[in-house]
Write a structure and sequence with these properties.
Helix content is about 35%, strand content about 35%. The protein is of the alpha/beta class. The chain has a domain at about 20-45 and about 85-185: Rossmann fold. The N and C termini lie far apart (about 40 Å).
């Protein structure tokens, strides 16, 4: 089963389980919105758009991108079906990029392409917030009877993705059912 087919098939189950935000994610979302202040943000791997209302209430214009049409089915607003490693936007289109749960579903080469694309579509001095699953290698996780690969990254590896393109503002490690590393960074060039 392809990644896209998986998310199309299991979109309803995902929405039932994950639409509610965890406390640490709410705090990170507030910090990101405070940095961006105004303009348009892109939510990469937006799924059902669980962060849309929050960002709009903060005065930000929202666009969500996901490659699963089923994940966005029934959502109202600016939702685009597309590929995050080949973004369908012109250079410097966004004041901020929010990328919460996407990276773990990509291979290492795809992660590098994702960061390149994020840099391309983010305005200079714009902010990005990206969450990674911490660790080494690739693990298999079972979801709804299907094993899916998840890419884990070390802090050093994560920071190397940002080098020369972004100034890292904050790195936060969170220990939950798995360890996460979130990065808030500002595009410098």
């Amino acid at each position: 089963m392809t990644k896209q087919a998986f998310w199309n098939v299991f979109s309803t189950k995902w929405k039932e389980k994950w639409m509610e935000r965890k406390k640490w994610q709410i705090e990170e979302r507030k910090a990101f919105a405070k940095k961006v202040k105004s303009g348009i943000i892109l939510d990469l791997g937006c799924g059902g758009g669980r962060d849309k209302v929050f960002f709009e209430e903060e005065g930000l214009e929202y666009a969500g991108l996901d490659f699963s049409k089923q994940m966005m089915k029934g959502e109202q607003g600016n939702f685009i079906c597309g590929n995050a490693i080949s973004l369908p936007f012109i250079e410097e289109s966004f004041d901020g990029i929010w990328c919460c749960s996407l990276v773990k579903h990509l291979g290492r080469k795809e992660i590098k392409n994702l960061i390149r694309e994020i840099c391309r579509v983010t305005k200079v001095k714009g902010y990005v917030w990206i969450c990674f699953d911490e660790g080494k290698g690739v693990v298999q996780e079972e979801r709804w009877g299907v094993k899916i690969p998840l890419t884990l990254c070390t802090e050093a590896e994560i920071l190397s993705y940002f080098a020369g393109r972004f100034k890292v503002v904050k790195v936060q490690k969170v220990k939950k059912w798995r360890n996460f590393i979130s990065v808030l960074a500002q595009k410098v060039k």
